Amino acid sequence: MATSGTPDPRPEFDTSQPTIARVYDALLGGKDNFAADREGAALYLKYVPDAGRCAIENRQALVKGVQYLARQAGIDQFLDIGSGLPTQKNTHEAAQEVNPDAKVAYVDNDPIVLAHGRALLATNNSTIVVTSDLRRPQEILENEEIRNHLDFSRPIALMVVGIHMHFHDDEKPDEWVRTLMNALAPGSYLFITDFVDTGEPLQKGMERAGLESLGNGWIRTPERIEQHFLGMPLVPPGLDFLARWFPEDPDADVPAVEELQPWQRILMAGIAKKA
Ligand code: SAM
């Protein structure tokens, strides 16, 4: 494995403030977090007692999406932005379980992800970790390590999973993703999960927890989330709540929306294909 990044590869972490990656790790039951992050996670649990289950279900959706992309869609290159701290099953493990030759480039702006990725990937030559920022898509595209690792003349799955909620619409996150998608070959895919707003109090609770703990974590209507896909057609079953979303088996017997627990109506997933 190789690693790179603009910040010092051995950064001094500020542990006094919660970070998105470490709060999420705490919600997933991980150990790579500090007191401030656990306090942030506690706020989530205060407003959404099942926030940990939401995080776990998001990881399960990540695996479902990656395995659909590797198996059914035949994708063997993944650019995973906002990849998060390593946890139980990561993108490279999910993809390489289907195709051992699949290549993965992880990008996260929190340098702790690089530090932990280095240890996890010490023996994996098909996977790299880079510190960079979705807000600077051109920097990601020009990153030498990413360009040496992924072949941009062939389809790539761009993963922006569990990260849109951390940007306000005023920042125009869709434009960053558009810059990235424009650089990808026809036949590439875009995989997104995001917090949804269908008017339920628990969804609003998730937003409140994010704003109080991290200063971000907005919810969006399904119509607004659809716009993240930049007009590209979604593969079946389209955009749906995670517990109803099975891209590998879109005809699966799934519970009705009303049958889901309220905490299961907080996140939606979708995958679109670039023509
Ligand atoms: N994608 C993983 C998943 O769905 O399980 C992790 C999601 S976690 C909630 C969001 C991740 O996005 C964190 O690791 C955080 O550090 C990262 N992140 C936040 N803002 C970012 C940015 N501007 N550029 C790159 N990564 C960012």
UniProtKB/TrEMBL annotation:
One of its GO terms (molecular function) is methyltransferase activity. The keyword Methyltransferase applies. It comes from the Bacteria. This is SAM-dependent methyltransferase. GO terms for biological process: methylation. Pfam families: Methyltransf_19. SUPFAM superfamilies: S-adenosyl-L-methionine-dependent methyltransferases. The lineage of its organism: Bacteria, Bacillati, Actinomycetota, Actinomycetes, Propionibacteriales. Keywords: Methyltransferase, Transferase. Gene3D superfamilies: Vaccinia Virus protein VP39 (3.40.50.150).
